Amino acid sequence: MFCSLHNVFLRSIQRWSALVLLGCFVGVFFVPFIAAQSPASRPMSSSDQAKLRAALDAYDQGNSQKAQPLLVDLATRYPRNYEAVEALGSLYTESGDLDKALPYLQRAIVIAPHQAIAHANLGAAFLKLNRNADAVHELQIAAKIEPHNAETQSNLGNALMLTNQSAAAAKSFAVASAAAPGNWDLAYNWALALYDSGSPQQASVVLQKIPAQAMTDQSHSLAGDIDEKLGNFKQAIIHYQAAAQSNPSDANIYTLTLELLRHWTWDEAIVIANYGASRYPDKIHFKVAEGIALYGSSKYPAAAAAFSKLLSQDPENTLYADLLGRSCSLVADGVNPDCNGLEDFASRHPENARAATYAAASILHRPAAEQDTAKAEQLLRQAIAADPKLTEAYYQLGVLEQQRSDWKESSLALEKAIALRPAYAEAHYRLSRAYAHLGMRDEAQKQMALQQQYSQQEKDHIDTRLQEVVTFLLKPS
Known about the structure:
Blueprint: H1 31-35, H2 46-60, H3 64-77, H4 82-94, H5 98-111, H6 116-128, H7 132-145, H8 150-162, H9 166-179, H10 184-196, H11 200-207, H12 217-230, H13 233-246, H14 250-262, H15 266-279, H16 284-296, H17 300-313, H18 318-328, H19 341-348, H20 353-364, H21 373-386, H22 391-403, H23 407-420, H24 425-437, H25 441-453, H26 455-474
């Protein structure tokens, strides 16, 4: 059936029924094949009619070994006999031999162009062959001839979904669901098509028709997507939890993890990400999610450890380096071996200004006796060369110069940082210190006042950076 993860993906396709009626899949247009056969007007003899009945009976009973040779003989000698051609095309389709089935399915359309089942069977075969536009064409004809056939409308809905016509698909699934009211798969597909077409409220109404005991993990996942879209965040989490409990698949557990991260429910996200990583140890995304949840809950050393391990496993991964740098930049002063990989990464990627800035900041967080200030300066100059508008690089350069007690150079770097981001509260504080040491008391007081003025905006900036980290996982792949 169709289903959904985040931003609504089609996870799978609705189960194929064996037959719509007697022989679900039938024939198609193949004039050269017909022309090479016996005269079209020749009536079937009574003995051959008996063979046809025997073949159809055998087919109905699932005895394809008996039915196939009889139907091949009859369809060859009577190329205009609809029953023989239709049944043989259906038999080949059921056995998965679509190359053999297609000429017979096409020929049945030529023989009986007003037979709904002929178009329905051909459309269903096209759907199996991923010829979705052709499937839409044939299934629309079948639905026009026989509008209340649930199987035809369901297959048409599938084909329309696969050709990005979800609004039209919703109409087909609605008709199919009305024709088969106890089929909850059809209700699910109807809801999914509505959601995908931008009608989440209508999708919610349809999905609520499904009894609680009939809700599958896919239904719960779709309900979660709908509630998230409608702003019912708590209810969305309940549905995602139900989906993961019903089927603890990688996708369901990860979807729940993402939902918890999206709403900054950090501790719960850590627990679920841990569980996902233990259940699916080869899935890196759980480890990334855990690191982000640790970062979000201000457990910066643990987050640094998580991202450091990921970077060691994939040394050229820019995302892991960035996440490690963000974590290390917020670790309290002191030596943190998990942050050492930043220097190596920055040296291999001189074009990555942020990596160099993070590496320099990590050095400056160490005790004074263990700081390599020359290396930190080299990294910061490298960052500024790569990105002359990187505010954080100028700020860290100002910090470095203050640690050297070079207040004039510090003020120049901090002034550039503030010029790039006027509401940078911490930079105003540092510049106030520099001005004070330079004897510029009035200017120092102004900077301190600006630091207080922008302190709330600085908090908002930190929150924005946190949201950026979460967005790494929420972006569609």
